[in-house]
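Blackboard transcription, Thursday session:
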Amino acid sequence: MAVFRSVSTQYDFPALEQRVLAFWKEREIFAKSLAPRGDADRGTFVFYEGPPTANGLPHNGHVLTRVIKDLFPRYKTMQGFTVPRKAGWDTHGLPVEVEVEKELGIHGGEAIAEYGIEPFTQRCIESVFRYTAEWERLTERIGFWVDLQDAYVTFHTRYVESVWWALSRLFAKGLLYQGHKVVWWWPQGGTALSAGEVGQGYKTVTDPAVVVRFPVDGDDGLSLLAWTTTPWTLASNVALAIGEALDYVEVEVTEGDEAGRYLLADGRREAILGDRPHHVVRTVKGSELIGLRYRPPFSFAEPDGGDPFRVIPADFVTLDQGTGVVHVAPAFGEDDYRVGREQGVGFLQLVSPDGKMTEACGEFAGRFCKEVDRDLIRDLKRRGLLFSDGQVRHEYPFCWRADDDPLIQYARKSWFVRTTEKIDGVIANNRATKWYPGHIQEGRFGDFLANNVDWALSRERFWGTPLNIWINDETGAMDAPASVDEILARNPDAFAAFDAAREKDPSLSEHLRVHKPWVDHVTWTKAGEPGTYRRVPEVIDCWFDSGCMPFAQWGYPHADGSRERFEQAFPADFISEAIDQTRGWFYSLLAISTLVFDEETQRELGLGDVREYPHPYKHCVVLGHVCDRTGKKESKSKRNYTPPDIIIDRVTMPMKVVVAGDGGPLNDLAGTVTDEQVGLTRDDHEGLDFQRRGCELTIRKDDASVSCLEPVGAGKADDFAAATDDNDYRHSVILSPAIAGRLGLTTGDTVEIEDATPAPGADAFRWFFYVSPPWNNTRHSLAGVRLAQKETLITLYNVYSFFTIYANIDGFDPAALGATGIEAADLAKATGFRPIAERGELDRWLVSELELTTAAVTAALDDYQVHEAARALSAFVDGLSNWYLRRSRKRFWAPGEVGDDSASTDKLDAYWTTWECLVTLGRLLAPFTPFLADDLFGNLAVAPLGERVAESVHLASWPVADESRIDRALSSRMAAARDVVSLGLAARSAHRLRVRQPLSAVQVCFADPTMAESLGSLGATVAEELNVKAVHFPASLDECVQYEVRPNFKALGPKIGKRMPLVQKALRAADPAALKRELDASGAVAVAVGDGDPITLGPDELEVRLAAKDGFAAEGGRVGVIVLDTEVTPELEREGWGREVVNRIQTMRKDLDLAYVDRISIAIDGPTALTDALAEHRDAIAGETLAVDIAFGPAPDGAEAREVQIGPHTATIAVTRVAG
RNA sequence: GGGCCGAUAGCUCAGCUGGUUAGAGCACCCGCCUGAUAAGCGGGAGGUCGGUGGUUCGAGUCCACUUCGGCCCA
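(Written on the board underneath:)
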């Protein structure tokens, strides 16, 4: 019975991953990993899950986020931390409402009110979890361990109450206030639109563009000129803005209707005055105009507050258009509002929310604002206030749903959080936070904080956390209860309306108690106070919801046990999201935490220890975007979107069918295909790699399918699309009539094609994201994932497979040999497990590399440098496979079996070393590739050792680097040996000396002379790799090596600075061979520098370089120079023939499909010069090829014979399998 | 218009606090090795490190300006 399950080299990673998923589920591994770890317990590592909106399907960017989020908790868990991972869902907000509006075919506040807020809200609740199943499937499939069962949900009562509590705290601190916010407003729908929606609705239209006179007070005949494309806002004008630094002129227009004196920017004079005859009266700086008073064009009403109708400075005035004097109507422009507030010019809003001019507007009252433009202009003209009348074509936003409805900028009453008052604290908090990459801190985020404006908190929407402010309808007093209980204390019947609704419809979600419209029925009175408290109508920005999650996820402070849980999980050690969250979640978390949890409050709340900055997160990894292979952001509308399933489960794609030769218009483009082929449009098919060599495809239609089809190129994708006027034909599949017939397909059908090669799988997808810095934008494609997989994961898998094959053959069983676990102490007493120091150099090297890798990976992960950790692992796997195992293969084939004690010490060393390294590597890889790691660990450690080890690698401990097993000198020696081998192979290549041809010797001359001695037994390795009989280290190779002695700039730079060029010059002038001799002999050289004192340079301050002189089979590199002895003696030549013959026989074995334990019998027929030579090496040949017998003579009957060329000789080799 | 990031070989990307021969993988070509490897090894070709100017003994790396992309915001 084999110890290890054999590992097939027919890779199917998705299948492996499904097995592991089933194992995790069955054994509840995730739940077990959350349990504190007894002795090894190192406390809690706090992770916050940023709640995704399950309002759309997850894409590749979410995969990146999830795999980064998963990595660190797994790592910390293995290190002995407890890492609770509570999932969460962001459920409120505009996207949800928009989705529901789309379903209902309605849009805007009024339409929603008409439909009914009650059913609308219920629809929102239903909509929120529409894609949850897909999200959960991806989350699980990609291996992101997070507690989905106990997720926090932002619309749940408990969560809402926590948010209320935070708002109530802010209210108590005076940090909530009501002001105005200018939004893009859709008057017909009675709704504000988000930036994204506005961006969708721009159209090019013609609008009036008028220049209006604003007569200056106290200077008859002088007017300021201002330009506007929205005449209807003139009625609400309160100020004129100028640029302080700009030049203005007073001009006199001498003729025509416009005769008079005007003030405008000098730079706009020509554009505005045109050819009107005029002269400049005077020139003034803008700053001199400040304070100038004027008469507004309309006086329907007095502005509220402030000191209106005067010239004020503003930073947004430019000379790009207009007059350089800007009409300011704070009610209808964001800049206007801001500058109006700053300058205290008052506020006037003569348009009501439905877009109609207000009652105050005389003859214009009740008409839609944009429709009164012409009449207003006529009125101005009549009153002599119109300077010029024109039109402009420009882009103007319209409602994206009702595209005849223009949007207007409109100031709405809005609630704000006074973040600016506490911004210093927020900035200090940010500075204490550790950001990855570092530039976010003072860059994108720091800049954002430095330009902070108060947080516009309220939304005039329906599906959100209701703002918990109740206002007394008589006194105006405000009250902000922090929970349902606090409301009930004010009025026990407060929720009567909801309770009644629920009685009528028991399916009504209990959580709607704290939502619109029911919460709007909640009122109370207070004893001794007139009036009734009624809630304000608004809901809040859903970013405030998610920013409350550090405490709201536990229902803090109301829920039972929430204080303890919050106490334990505040602040977070680690969070991670994509860069677009800078102004989103990263900000809302930081701002809310800073404002709510100031020191005084923390003390008041009785938090055990006061949490200093940073809170609520210490380390924040900011992820880049996942783009397509051309660097464009993936989006469905651009058709450059690859669903994650293509990577993790099945490489499949829907395509349009074109039947070859059906006489249709596409035939010329399609060409012809055989019944074994499919044609594909020449396109890269969203990064799918159907073009690669040996690719086989399957066509599927319902239950029928045709497999083993070879893809061939057809016409260009664009041509297909153009010929059919159908973009779907970009991805066309051309089928032969026979295949199309078999599947019942005709041109124009859509069919699934699938790659016969299994998809890369979740581990590969994860690994792909780990190997490059996650904060860079990543270009993602199937080919890219396959490449990353091949480089490391497949290499490792092959090592793993090799090991299990031979370990099973030899009966290597760690448990039977006495291992009691996987740590060094558990292995020390096992049979054949020798101390590392006693093993051969190759084993010591591998173990040393393993320890170095362990240290490197640990250090990199501690610093959140995922890619560095992944690269260290990649390098180790490469060394393990391509050096250690390649060099060790023969040790595994050596005679003797572990089970019957006949194995050699060396063979056992190879097994123990490989086994231990693989098991440790499995642990190191566990956070990265949790599936493969667990499969490997389960097979290599758990299968033999059973309960003596953790049942899953994710419950095992993280390896700790053992410094005593690190041998840095050996590492550098091995590196030097590998360099020497490279040079030797380069020399062979350059001189056409094939490696099969043995040579007598190689001379090696190191740049560092001490290396020659320390290379030690590695000389044998070099000899074997280079196929030479001897390696010599001559003290000097002057005849074929030239030296260069140069300064070690890094060491010398700080010491001599500006004198560097002098030293360089002096060294160049000297004889390098002499310098080297002096350096070797005395350990230092003195160089004369100009007229100053000579400078003495030690070996560390100089660098000796060697180069090969021409005319030798020599190669040089940093390590030194090697020279091959190229003479091929007759003996060497004959030995070479032997190796040639082995090569031919092995090829024949392969061609004959012989099993690799099959014995053979060989007959070689050729000239005696050859056969005599081969006879000398008969044993070597037989050993290598598993031949029981080598005969020289003609091939026996029935043998597979082949004519071959061996050196100058032609021979016939016959191979026969020997039965038994 | 403001802010941030990026630009390095045909492609995808490394390059730590400045150190003088700028690296890797893929693809390509040549050669080799091979009974773990949809492999491996060696070599070759391919780079004025987006441009200009500056700081420095020394710049892919620091500074300024600039061009082109990307993202965020207005």
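Lecturer's comment: The longest strand of chain A covers residues 202-215.
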